[in-house]
Amino acid sequence: MISDSVTLMVIFVLAAFVGYEVISKVPSILHTPLMSGSNAIHGIILAGAMVVAGYAHGVLQTALAAVAVFLATGNIVGGAVVTDRMLGMFKGRQAGRGEREEAK
Predict the structure, then answer these.
(1) Helix-, strand-, coil-residue percentages of the chain, each rounded to 5
(2) Which residue from 24, 50, 68, 102 has the highest number of Cβ atoms inside 10 Å of its Cβ?
(3) Phi, psi of 26 (to 5 degrees)
(4) What is the pLDDT of residues 37-77, one digit of tens each?
């Protein structure tokens, strides 16, 4: 049982390091498409967290499943808000160009 826990912890830590390295190398121009893809993945994570919550037994498992659902939901909402704001910045630039052309 302990070796399973240690193995899972090692996998988690390695995934965190790999995720950090991959994201830190992304140029800023690609963050909007990356956020859109990330939101889709977090939707799948949320569905998985809800399935795990359904099969939880005991207080600790139920609490961890509830935290997972809460964090996945927050990640989806936050990603959607950031993506919307970033796309809004591009719309503002295009609207400004049209107004300047009409003024000429």
Answers:
(1) 90, 0, 10
(2) 68
(3) -80, 130
(4) 777 777 888 888 888 888 888 898 889 889 989 988 888 88
Kindly state the DSSP code that residue 26 receives in the 8-state scheme: S
Q: For 64-87, give one letter per residue: b (16+ CB within 10 A) or e.
A: ebeebbeebeebbeebeeebeeee
Residue 53: count other Cβ atoms within 10 Å of its Cβ. 17
- For 38, the token pair is 């990330």
Q: Which two tokens stand for residue 64?
A: 């961890």
Using alpha carbons, select from 67, 65, 68 the residue that is nearest to residue 53.
65
